[in-house]
Amino acid sequence: MILSSAPRVAVPLVLQRQLTAIGQIYFQDSPIFGTVLLLCLYLSGPVLALGCVLGAASAALAAWASKLPAERRDNGLYSCNGALTGIGLCASYQFGGALLLWIAAAGALTAALTWAAERARIPPLTLPFVLMMWFVGACAGAVGADSGLQGVALPAGACGTSAINYLFCSVGQAAFIGVAPLGMLLWAAMARRRWHMAMWGLSGAALSWLSIALAGRLWPGSGIEAHVAGAGINSTLCMLALSTGSSRWPLRLAAAWLSIALSVALGDAGLAYYTLPFILATWLARCR
């Protein structure tokens, strides 16, 4: 029997769209970058890559079944939060069949939340991811034992105090990758495609390192160093997001600094904030 050529074309196209969705975690609409990110996840921990793929696939399926706008589906904008949620859940909870079911359900819900945010004229950013992590956290008993990450990819000292390690570790930790060499690989893939965007992302991490280091010297014993990981993640994402638009550099710096301050404040309040400081700071910057 001779098969139609349609399936042979459709399979690579579906794969390309899923990789694009994974790349959108870093605001990259590139299947090549998505492939590099998936490789880094696998090298960091195979379950992270599995969670990413399952979350993205379930979100894409939900978006397709709901007949959401095709162009945004093809660009991975309804699936990127599902991918990030899958990574986050695998990084935060014990792996097992129950967790896989939660990832699939949460991925589908992120697509619905993204669409709802767009209907409300609210930039979704990573808000669906944050809401899903909070929701699953409230039902943690049905998922497995919490690993104790408390809203950041790794404990504060995981990347060390070296500036170079911290910069590239912050880039990787935005996707729960806590090893500086893998963060450097991600940054190189980003720089290969969008040099200015990669530099802005790195400058966000640098601003966080300088701010936390300076605050630690001015207020010794304050414990502000405990927030260094979360501050780096949110500042990096803030710079990446704002570099995709026409915002001027002073506004980008101000928004990144605000995300650092919010990370410290929310962390002191005991909230598992994930990427909430980045979301709030970016919303405020885009309202200007």
Q: Your description of this structure?
A:
- This protein has helices at 5-23, 31-44, 46-65, 70-74, 80-92, 97-119, 127-138, 163-173, 180-193, 195-218, 228-243, 249-268, 276-287.
- With 288 residues, it is mostly helical.
- Helix 6 packs across helix 7 (127-138) and helix 8 (163-173) packs across helix 11.
- It is globular.
Rg from alpha-carbon coordinates:
18 Å
Count of helical regions: 13
Helix content: over 70%
Largest sheet: none
Q: Mean pLDDT, nearest integer?
A: 88
Structural class per helix/strand content?
Answer: mainly alpha
H/E element order:
HHHHHHHHHHHHH
- Apparent shape: globular
Question: Which consecutive residue ranges, at least 5 long each, have pLDDT under 50?
Answer: 1-8, 148-157
The first-to-last residue Cα distance is 61 Å
Number of strands: 0
- What share of residues are in beta strands? under 5%
Structure summarized in a few sentences:
With 288 residues, the chain is mostly helical.
What characteristics describe this protein?
288 residues, mainly alpha, 0% strand, disordered N terminus
List the helices and strands and how they pair.
Layout: H1 5-23, H2 31-44, H3 46-65, H4 70-74, H5 80-92, H6 97-119, H7 127-138, H8 163-173, H9 180-193, H10 195-218, H11 228-243, H12 249-268, H13 276-287
Helix pairs in contact: 1-2, 2-3, 2-9, 3-5, 3-6, 5-6, 5-7, 6-7, 8-9, 8-10, 8-11, 9-10, 10-11, 10-12, 11-12, 11-13, 12-13
